[in-house]
Design a protein that fits this description.
Helix content: 55-70%
Structural class: alpha+beta
Radius of gyration: 32 Å
Distance between the termini: 44 Å
Strand order of the largest sheet: 2-1-5-4-3
Length: 521
């Protein structure tokens, strides 16, 4: 390998890696301070709760005595005080900064939750104290650290960063010297180890996301650098540089808005990540273990599997439509457009229209049924019919999309095969069975795989028409993920569900390719 390739490899691998490690390391100090702040807020909430408990239990003669007993029990590293609802200091455990009065007054105006605020190099936590009945706020408990907040970098993340840097250097040397599969495996191991190690850094302060994005960016840049370093000819190297220069904007967009969020969701799945809780600890596989015991998740998974079963029925209907419009007749193009129109229409608009059609009292479907003597049906209001009703709507919505694909497959079959079959005396059914179906297998496999992937991700129809009801009969897995993320605010648990869904879809797709792809010509 020439000297230019060496410089390219080093510049694209080691230098970006140093920057990728420096970005999260720069924020480690903020993460350490955030952990200390969370602990201080927990102490303040505990002190406020202890004062309330002392008042409720009647174990102290008055508010001042109860507060004094609680504040005296706090560690010596904390300066504490209690302010009544008028803003005056009732009990003071140590000298507090004068600027704290403004914070306490602001706290007394809101009095809804514990807050923390910076006071120079220290942090103060202010927690509301309720009366013995738990109705009114009678004051606040204030805690301030007597020493400055810690700003040192934890040794663990720094050791991880150094290990990742050394591993990357070793992998680069192996690539430059041997360029074998072992070196490529080393690069992959470095990337995987880096994601794991950086993901284990403290989640407080949000620098975990910066770490993951920075390291994923390094992985992409390193891959580009190694691919350029492998080019020996100057002309090929110049062409590759130009190509990567043109691809850089799209690659950056893909990294920031696709690869980055995907990797971050995997990192989230190993954490207890609540949007309202300051502490977001690493919990390992606890979220995945909880999924195995979660009856609601298993029911949503079962509903999704049942919903996907409409795909074969829709494929049969779509193939029939494709055979019908694959002929010369007046208005055939208009028919193809009409059949395909539902797929390109807004899914929200379609869901709203079908919700009206399924209405038990004024819906169009029940009106037509009563005209022919059939009783009105509780389409969306009964657990027995809600999911089949959504499946009926989905067949109508996606039939046109599958029809277009089957039509393209039909028109790619040479007409000479049909002519030869007619000459040999083959009838319509024989031509369909022995020519059309075998040659449509690749198209059918594509339709089946893509539709199964789409249907495992069904959300809009459920959200607009049923909201998972009645009695969770239409609670599918993506809607269940949405509720856990944005209603229950359990981002880590929802991310674990999303990765389980990815694994299921991947396995189902793999099985389809293995079992059905082998019979394709």
């Amino acid at each position: 390998m020439n000297r230019t390739s060496h410089r390219i490899a080093i510049g694209f691998v080691l230098a970006p890696l140093a920057l990728a490690l420096a970005v999260p390391v720069h924020r480690i100090g903020a993460g350490a301070r955030q952990e200390t702040t969370s602990a201080l807020a927990a102490h303040a909430e505990a002190a406020a709760g202890a004062v309330r408990a002392a008042l409720a239990g009647g174990g102290a003669p008055g508010l001042a005595a109860a507060t004094r007993a609680v504040l005296d029990a706090l560690p010596d590293t904390l300066a504490a005080a209690f302010y009544d609802a008028d803003g005056g200091a009732v009990v003071t455990g140590a000298a507090l900064p004068a600027t704290l009065d403004e914070v306490v007054v602001e706290r007394l105006r809101t009095m809804d939750r514990t807050i923390t605020t910076r006071l120079g190099a220290r942090t103060a936590a202010v927690a509301p104290v309720q009366d013995a009945d738990g109705w009114d706020i009678i004051g606040v408990a204030v805690l301030v650290r007597t020493a400055a907040d810690p700003a040192r970098l934890p040794a663990g993340p720094l050791a991880h960063a150094l290990a990742a840097w050394l591993l990357a250097g070793a992998a680069l040397l192996a690539w430059l010297r041997w360029r074998r599969k072992v070196a490529l495996a080393g690069v992959a191991i470095v990337a995987g180890a880096g994601f794991f190690l950086l993901g284990r850094w403290p989640a407080a302060g949000g620098h975990g996301l910066a770490a993951v994005l920075a390291f994923s960016g390094w992985a992409v840049v390193a891959a580009i650098g190694l691919s350029l370093a492998a080019l020996r000819r100057p002309l090929a190297l110049r062409e590759a540089k130009r190509a990567w220069a043109f691809l850089a904007p799209s690659l950056a967009h893909l990294l920031v808005f696709s690869v980055g969020p995907i990797v971050f969701s995997l990192w989230l799945s190993f954490h207890e990540w609540d949007l309202l809780a300051p502490a977001r600890p690493f919990v390992g596989l606890d979220n995945y273990q909880e999924l195995a015991r979660d009856g609601d998740f298993l029911r949503a998974l079962r509903n999704t599997a049942v919903y996907v079963l409409f795909v074969p029925v829709g494929m049969v209907l779509a193939l029939g439509l494709a055979l019908f419009v694959d002929r010369r007749m007046p208005g055939v193009n208009l028919l193809r457009t009409v059949f395909f129109l539902p797929y390109i229409t807004s899914f929200v608009a379609i869901s709203l229209v079908w919700r009206w059609m399924f209405h038990p009292d004024v819906g169009l479907l029940n009106h037509l049924l009563t005209r022919v003597g059939i009783p009105a049906q509780p389409w969306l209001s009964s657990p027995a019919t809600a999911l089949p009703s959504l499946m009926l709507m989905s067949v109508w919505m996606y039939a046109g999309y599958m029809m277009v694909l089957f039509l393209a497959g039909l028109q790619s079959i040479p007409a000479s095969l049909y002519e030869s079959a007619r000459i040999d005396g083959a009838g319509a059914w024989q031509r369909f069975r022995h020519i059309t179906l075998p040659l449509l297998r690749p198209t059918a496999l594509f339709v089946l795989v893509t539709m199964v992937i789409f249907m495992f991700q069904v959300f809009t129809a459920v959200y607009v028409m049923t909201e998972g009801g009645p009695l969770h009969a239409t609670d599918v897995i993506v809607y269940h993920i949405y509720r856990n993320a944005w209603e229950y605010l359990r981002m880590g648990y929802a991310s674990a569900m999303a990765w389980v869904l990815f694994a299921i879809v991947f396995l189902v797709t793999l099985v389809q390719f293995r079992w059905l792809g082998r019979t394709s010509p």
